[in-house]
Automatic annotation (TrEMBL), chains A, B:
Entry keyword annotation includes RNA-binding: no
Keywords, ordered alphabetically: DNA-binding, Transcription, Transcription regulation
Boundaries of every HTH lacI-type domain copy: 2-56
Cited PANTHER family: HTH-TYPE TRANSCRIPTIONAL REGULATOR GALS (PTHR30146:SF109), LACI-RELATED TRANSCRIPTIONAL REPRESSOR (PTHR30146)
Protein name per Swiss-Prot or TrEMBL: LacI family transcriptional regulator
Gene Ontology MF terms: DNA-binding transcription factor activity; transcription cis-regulatory region binding
PROSITE patterns attached to this UniProt entry: HTH_LACI_2
Native source species: Kribbella kalugense
Length: 334, 334
DNA sequence: TCGGATGTTTTTAACGTTCAAAACGTCCGT
DNA sequence: ACGGACGTTTTGAACGTTAAAAACATCCGA
């Protein structure tokens, strides 16, 4: 494996000149540059990243904690990881994976990775309401950026990127309205979830703006599961509210609702429209197809990396991106 | 950030002694060791990984290429990644993600990562029939281990770990047999897929061993999609073969089959049993639940890391692990 | 009391790179 | 011809660690 020294000897220049040829080529006389480059090519030289990192104390690696949660929340993780990885590579960086206990118990792991100089900083995701990680990292002066908001009353520590859940719900409501639905219900999560309240608010506000009823049309589930989604749909139907559209807070809940409709002999898309959230692989796999709100993963990843690597000069460090409505059979297109 | 030098000064020993306290504590006199450890703790010292890597020329990072394929094939990737990550951490290592073009076009990327010393070696997955990567890496002397076989006629280059697909199919057949099914069909892939032929063989052999018919009971799909699965199920039913069980090569195909059964008013699990492969999140989310063959991800990841990091002294470098049948409603338990 | 064996610690020299400063040329205006 | 300005290249030192060898103790048996 060739080193700078060997390239320098071959090109008959000093080691520093070869280094400059790579990092500051404008400093070299054109003919020298060409000669050095020929030697580099000939010897198939590649800079040793460890040596460079030692000298510059920057490793060009970004830590990402792979979540250890129930399957449901993972459904779009591979999409996210791929986008993040690609975005990092566009800046010559890479993603380093690690595992850590959730919450504050995981902080020593983050600290350790940074202290041992395995990573320059972190991308947080799977953000929880009142997530303790942001404050902790900020206090330690460890660089990070969050995918997802913390939903505290106070200002959130550190930069973040998120998808506008309220706008997403509103888009879903609007789409149902445009396809003739007039009694649109919402299936959501417990009040403790900031994300849940955000999406719920979008539904409520858009319904009001369109002059649609909301009273008694919102159900909270205890957890993000099929059964809870089905139960919620059942309670809406049993209450005799004459619901003709359901905006569910997640694809899983939506699927549960779809199952309940089918069980009762109702045809999703025709008798009643349903939408989900996140456009997970599930959405494309259920019977009539589930209309869902896609998160713009490439944009999200791009923003995260831009912010984290500090190339976001002057740009805001809080970015709210718009989801995209992917229409499928569950809302009867056409 | 404390360095060895500072710890050494604080503990009033030489730098090398502190290094030894960490890497070869048995060399120190117990009281010295204690004193050094106190200083380490007090100064909150963490070894700089870049410096160590430079010196030892080993980075303790393992490269993994995040696949850029249609969603279906990703369905268990997050499980795999988590397991791989955890297994790596058990040996003090971590996973570095990267993207690369498929096939031989991606090889320069692998080479580059290794030459620049960003990784010590690679874990390959999404192995394709006649995958060119294995031979190439072996030729270059770059360490790697494969999750999945290459299905060449000749001996496969390099070590691998895989799940016994034939045994999996056999387990599925056996389970259907035990629950009273006697005409068990197989829905698979094109002949060009080694993995497909493996699983097909398992079905055929087990059926024969049990004295069950196979003639006309095997259908090949063009691709791994819902529609193809549905089409295959339809053709089996239309052919009047009186099929009462279906072993599908993937969860997606199985789901397609389930959809077709439901469409025809048949009840999966009661009228006809269906099994899938891989136990993806989908299996738990469809109507009666899909019986499927779970890949033992933790074992797989453990073996991969063990083999790659060379701690597999004398152990075979080709490991075939057994899948586990996860029984759900689609095969009418009880 | 001395040589050797053993156990502990220090010294020296790298690993491959980049930073900062110094040195070397070349050209120009005076 | 000389001083300065600029452009290009080299020198010396450092980043934080570990391998190998040397140095220093201590203890034992002869």
């Amino acid at each position: 494996m060739a080193t700078l020294k060997q390239v320098a000897a071959h090109a008959e220049v000093s080691v520093q000149t070869v280094s400059n040829a790579l990092n500051a080529p404008h400093r070299l006389r054109p003919d020298t540059l060409e000669r050095v480059n020929r030697s580099i090519e000939l010897l198939n030289y590649r800079p040793n990243r460890n040596a460079r990192s030692l000298r510059t104390s920057s490793v060009e690696l970004i830590g990402y904690c792979v979540p250890d949660w129930p399957d449901q929340t993972h459904l779009v993780m591979d999409q996210f990881l791929h986008a993040l990885c690609a975005a990092a590579e566009r800046t010559g960086r890479h993603i380093l994976l690690f595992t850590a206990p959730p919450g504050v118990d995981g902080m020593p792991t983050y600290d350790d990775l940074h202290a041992r100089r395995l990573v320059d900083g972190f991308v947080l995701s799977q953000t929880e309401t009142h997530d303790p990680r942001h404050g902790w990292l900020k206090e330690q002066g460890i660089p990070f950026v969050s995918f997802g908001r913390v939903w505290k009353e106070t200002t959130q520590p550190g930069p973040w990127v998120d998808v506008d859940g309220a706008a997403g719900s509103a888009m879903a409501v609007r789409h149902l309205y445009d396809t003739g639905r007039r009694r649109i219900a919402f299936i959501g999560w417990p009040k403790s979830s900031g994300l849940g309240e955000d999406r719920l608010g979008g539904w409520r506000d858009e319904c009001k703006a369109l002059g649609l009823p909301t009273a008694g049309l919102s159900v909270r589930c205890r957890e993000d599961s099929l059964d809870e989604g089905a139960r919620a749909a059942a309670s809406l139907l049993d209450a005799g509210r004459e619901v003709d559209g359901i905006v569910a807070l997640s694809d899983i809940l939506a699927l549960g609702a779809l199952r309940e409709l089918t069980r009762r002999g109702l045809t999703p898309g025709r008798d009643l429209s349903v939408t989900g959230f996140d456009d997970s692989p599930l959405a494309d796999v259920v019977a009539p197809g589930l209309t869902s709100l896609r998160q713009p993963m490439d944009d999200i990843a791009g923003e995260l990396i831009t912010i984290l690597t500090g190339s976001a000069d002057g740009r805001p460090v809080e970015r709210l991106l718009q989801p995209e409505l992917v229409i499928r059979g569950s809302t009867a297109p056409g």
